[in-house]
Amino acid sequence: MDSSQTIYQALKKAGINFVVSLPCVNLGKLMDMIDCDSDIIHVPVNREEEGFGICAGAYMGGKKTAILMQNSGLGNSVNVLASLYKLYQLPIIMIISHRGTDGEFMNAQVPMGKATTGVLDALEITYFIPKTPDDALKLISKAGSLVEIENVPVGILLEISFW
Asked: Distance of CA 5 to CAs 71, 98, 118, 136, 148, Å?
């Protein structure tokens, strides 16, 4: 099973039935799988903050939510994560393409790549960095349990080497 298929299967196993996504070359194949799954509502959006707001509403309507995004969008999402998700204890799994890590070809991605874990630490958001597809299966399952039990956002950082 390839990396994208593994993430897809792990999200299904976690019961995710509502996904918001933003364009990302690394997440493209995963987005296609989700888009073809009639059990998952998939809403492509233009901005991360918009996606988090839509997911908050979907959660209030009984859905289990996830967002697919690049780490560059994490910077756009600090306020919504702090003042909505953390404050009101809203659960979401964040599948984050962690650009700017070893092997990155685009220099502009490197500064946010270096800042990503610090941003999540500052927000006190738990995150996992799977190294292999097997790790991803286990860690997304763990993330699914955390979001359900603790009503918190949890990040899954997928570095360049993961793909």
From this structure: 21, 18, 29, 11, 23
pTM of the model: 0.95
Compute the chain's Rg from CA coordinates.
14
CA 28 to CA 5: how far, in whole Å? 11
What distance in Å separates the CA atoms of residue 159 and residue 20, rounded to the nearest whole number? 20
Helices 3-13 and 28-35: crossing angle in degrees, nearest 10, is 40
The class level of CATH for 3-70+77-102+118-131+144-162 reads: alpha beta
**Confidence label for 138 from pLDDT (cuts 50, 70 and 90):** very high
Q: How many CB atoms lie within 10 A of CB 162?
A: 21
In 3-state terms, what secondary structure has residue 33?
helix
Residues ≥6 apart with Cβ < 8 Å to 35: 42
What are the boundaries of each domain within the chain? 3-70+77-102+118-131+144-162
